[in-house]
Every structure is written in structure tokens, then in C-alpha cells.
Design a protein that fits this description.
The protein is of the alpha+beta class and 453 residues long. The chain folds into two domains: 233 residues, PmbA/TldD superfamily (PmbA/TldD fold, 2-Layer Sandwich); 215 residues, no CATH class. It is built from nine helices and 18 strands. Strands 1, 2, 3, 4, 5, 6 and 7 form a seven-stranded mixed sheet that branches. It has a five-stranded mixed barrel with strand order 8-13-14-15-18. Strands 11-10-9-12-17 form a five-stranded mixed sheet, with helices on one face. A hairpin with a 2-residue loop joins β6 and β7. α1 packs across α2. It is globular and about 70 Å long. The two termini are 44 Å apart.
Length: 453
């Protein structure tokens, strides 16, 4: 057993808002005393408990407690940044001085600076993100054991385990700047996962399952997670290779979300102003098939990526990114917006709950629509080039004939170009996965290259 403690076990509590604001104000005032024309500061703290078990034995038990401050200062159009975990007066002053030294030594950047004061968030709806879990280490260990045991009991071929893990975390962050803005986020995240190995003869296949939520009461039960992991591992036994061929490909939801992640990367300001995106200059043009509609919804209660303001304090908003396949807007913070001579979209730090409007067909109906092709349930590697759109990843899953899964497949590669893949989306599923900040169902693409034997 390995026990790690980054500080005392979490009987402690997170700093109150007044304490966070005092730390932030010290940093902002120190920057102004140094002559900075503007400054911004992030102060954060976190408490957590993580447990993992394997074969019923404790592998790790870890308590986390951390806090820190990062500050950026602006001298006109020169900028510098520094961070510290020492939140004493001397520690904060030292970090600010370091940031000022860096700023004075750098060249001017005409796009540097705080976001516009008029764009700061003024309303802070309750997004219901903070639900601490009063979980003792013993209870966490028992929960992980129950999860693993349920998976091992699925059937006789589940003979090995990579273990089960439980994590619970609560965090707070306060962002403040010299516009007078101060905003606080308090949020929790809880997760439980299990990874199992099925064995038959000389063949071994591994698979897993996990659940995640803001509120522990919304997690799947330990037994359900374990059983799902065991069933998935057993289902992969008897996997075969495929002959190289073109065919339709159906991505299950937890694989499909990566496709939309690549899309967000390609329409983000950093890629666009560097001219390193295959979607450069595609605004108001079709980039998906007409049935695809994508929206940002930052105010979903208990959402994985819900927020009232972005990393610069700019108010978030519901917005349509793709309508009937047509690109409606980019994802910009203030710096990239200035580079592109545009306005920030309130997306410093990314997209806040990307929602893919679901189709009407469930997974079985999508199989029937596909007829013959590949269901992808696992991908390996990071072979997506958002500069050119070229896409190639190792994959595993199941082969489908006449709308019915016939056998598992492995050791294949799926390839295409993201631009063509997006426009080749033939159907979207109703089986939406809400565990992350990208909410989508299964995605059926009409044609990709499958490389095998």
C-alpha cells in the first residue's frame, strides 16, 4: 500500500471568499505600487481524497490539499506572469515583483492586456456546482472494493484486474483584476472507475468504465460501474483483425466527443491567428453535414463545464457555434480576438458545455442504418492534425453486418480527413453522454478508411 499526503487529511476546509479576496487584493495593490498599469490574479485552493484498490487490496490512498496564486501584470503592452504557493504577505509580494521584472524585460505586444472592462460579468447565477462528499477513507476504500468485486463476478473469464479507483475533490478559485472585477467559483467533482481483464485461452482483453458527477448522488452505483467494465472486457474476447477497406464508422458517445474536441481546437483563437487550422476562414460556411447543430450552454446546473464568466472575467453566454452544419462563430479570448481584429467571445479557457443537438435514433437504430461497418469503442494515439485535418488513430471495437454486431475487432487503424469526416456525418444518436463538458451521442460517419491486414 502506498499512502501519499500533500498536506493534512481533508478535515480542513477551503478558504472563505473574504480570505481569497484579501490575497488577491494584496497582489493587485503590490502590482500597482510597482507601477503596473493593470494586473489580474487567480487564487485557488483544493481538497481531495483519492483511493485505488487492486484485487481487493489498497494500492494508493492519497489526501490532497493545495493552494496557490498566479498573477499577471501589464506595463502598457508589456506583460509578465509569476505564481506562488506561499500566500504570506512576503510570498505574494515576491511573486508580484518577479512578474514585474519579467514584464519590464519583455518586448511590447500590441495585443496584450486585460479584457475590456465593459465585458466583465455582472450577474452570477447559482449553477449548483458545489457538493462536497463527506466520505471517510474507509468508506472510499469499501466503495472501490465493491466496484471491483462486482466486475470480477460478471463471469468466469474476468480473471484479472487493473483495479478500481475513487476520487473526490472540492476546489475554489477567485479571479480578480484592476477593473474592479472579482468572481469566485466553488465546485466539486467525484468519480469512480474500474478496469478489468478478460482471459480465454491465450487471449487477454482489457476494458473499463467510469462515472463522474458534481454530486455524489448522481454517480452510477459501484456495482453498476464494475459490471459494465466486466461486460465490456468480456465482449472483446474473440477479437479479429479486418482486411483494409473503406466502410462506415459509428463512434460511440465517449469516442465521438473527441471529434468535437478537434473541432473546438480548430476554431479556437490560438490556432486561427497562427493560421494553423484546417477551418481557417470558414466562418459562415458549411463545415459539417446539415444535420449537425452545436451550441455552447454555460449555465447547465451541475454541468461539467458550467461557468458564469471565462478565465478573464468576461461574461459567458449561450451561443450557437454551428447551425445546420454552418460555422456561426469562433472561440476567442481577448488576446486572440485582438490578433484577429475581432471581439472576445468570452471563451478564454475554452468552451463552456458544448452541446451537440441529438438525433432521434438510438444506438440499435444507428446500427441498422449503418448496415455494414465498424463500431469504434476505443482509440489509441493522438493522430489528429488540426492544421491539415488529417486523421489517423489506432482503434478497436465491433464489426457489424446487416445491422447486427457480429464480432469484436482490434489492431486496426481508422483514417480520413476531419473536414470530410465532419461533412460525412450521416446520423447523430439520441444516446447522449453527459459526463464531460462535451455532450453528444453516437456519431455515424458515412465512410472512412479502415486499415488492417
Amino acid at each position: 500500500m502506498q499512502i501519499r499526503m500533500s498536506s493534512n487529511p481533508p478535515a480542513a476546509t477551503l478558504p472563505e471568499r473574504a480570505t481569497l479576496e484579501a490575497w488577491a487584493q494584496r497582489a493587485l495593490e503590490a502590482g500597482q505600487r510597482e507601477g503596473a498599469s493593470g494586473a489580474e490574479v487567480h487564487v485557488n485552493g483544493g481538497l481531495g481524497l483519492s483511493v485505488s484498490v487492486r484485487k481487493g487490496e489498497i494500492e494508493t490512498l492519497e489526501f490532497q490539499r493545495d493552494r496557490g496564486l498566479s498573477v499577471s501584470v501589464y506595463f502598457g503592452q508589456r506583460t509578465g506572469a509569476a505564481s506562488t504557493s506561499d500566500l504570506s504577505d512576503a510570498g505574494i509580494a515576491g511573486a508580484v515583483r518577479a512578474a514585474c521584472v519579467i514584464a519590464r524585460a519583455t518586448g511590447e505586444d500590441p495585443c496584450a492586456g486585460l479584457a475590456e472592462a465593459g465585458r466583465m460579468a455582472k450577474t452570477f447565477p447559482d449553477l449548483d456546482l458545489n457538493h462536497p462528499w463527506a466520505l471517510t477513507p474507509d468508506a472510499a476504500i469499501e466503495t472501490a472494493r465493491r466496484c471491483e468485486a462486482a466486475g470480477l463476478a460478471v463471469e468466469r473469464r474476468i480473471r484479472q484486474t487493473e483495479g478500481a479507483a475513487l476520487n473526490t475533490h472540492q476546489g475554489v478559485e477567485l479571479y480578480a483584476n484592476t477593473h474592479g472585477f472579482a468572481g469566485e467559483r466553488r465546485a466539486t467533482s467525484h468519480s469512480l472507475s474500474c478496469s478489468l481483464i478478460a482471459v480465454e485461452g491465450q487471449e487477454m482483453q482489457r476494458d473499463d468504465w467510469w462515472t463522474s458527477a458534481r454530486h455524489a448522488g448522481e454517480l452510477e452505483s459501484p456495482e453498476a460501474v464494475g459490471r459494465r467494465a466486466g461486460e465490456r472486457a468480456a465482449a472483446r474476447l474473440g477479437a479479429r483483425k479486418l482486411a483494409t477497406q473503406p466502410a462506415p464508422v459509428l463512434f460511440v458517445p465517449d469516442m465521438a466527443r473527441s471529434l468535437f474536441g478537434h473541432f473546438i481546437s480548430a476554431i479556437s483563437g490560438g490556432a486561427l491567428y497562427r493560421k494553423a487550422s484546417f477551418l481557417l476562414d470558414k466562418l459562415d460556411q458549411p463545415v459539417f453535414s446539415p444535420q449537425v447543430n452545436l451550441e455552447q450552454k454555460p449555465f447547465i446546473a451541475r454541468g461539467a463545464a458550467s461557468a458564469a464568466y471565462d478565465n478573464e472575467g468576461v461574461a459567458t453566454a449561450e451561443r450557437v457555434l454551428v447551425e445546420a452544419g454552418v460555422l456561426q462563430g469562433y472561440v476567442l479570448g481577448s488576446y486572440s480576438a485582438r490578433q484577429m481584429k475581432m471581439q472576445t467571445t468570452g471563451n478564454a479557457g475554452g468552451v463552456f458545455n458544448l452541446v451537440v443537438r441529438p438525433g432521434e435514433k438510438n444506438f440499435d437504430q444507428l446500427l441498422r442504418e449503418m448496415g455494414r461497418g465498424l463500431v469504434v469503442t476505443e482509440m489509441m494515439g493522438s493522430g489528429a492534425n488540426t492544421v491539415t485535418g488529417d486523421y489517423s488513430r489506432g482503434a478497436a471495437g465491433f464489426w457489424v453486418e446487416n445491422g447486427i454486431i457480429t464480432h469484436p475487432v482490434h489492431e486496426i487503424t481508422i483514417a480520413g480527413n476531419l473536414s470530410q469526416m465532419f461533412k460525412g456525418i450521416a446520423a447523430l444518436g439520441s444516446d447522449v453522454d453527459t459526463r464531460t463538458g462535451i455532450r453528444c451521442g453516437s456519431v455515424l460517419i458515412d465512410r472512412m478508411t479502415i486499415a488492417g491486414d
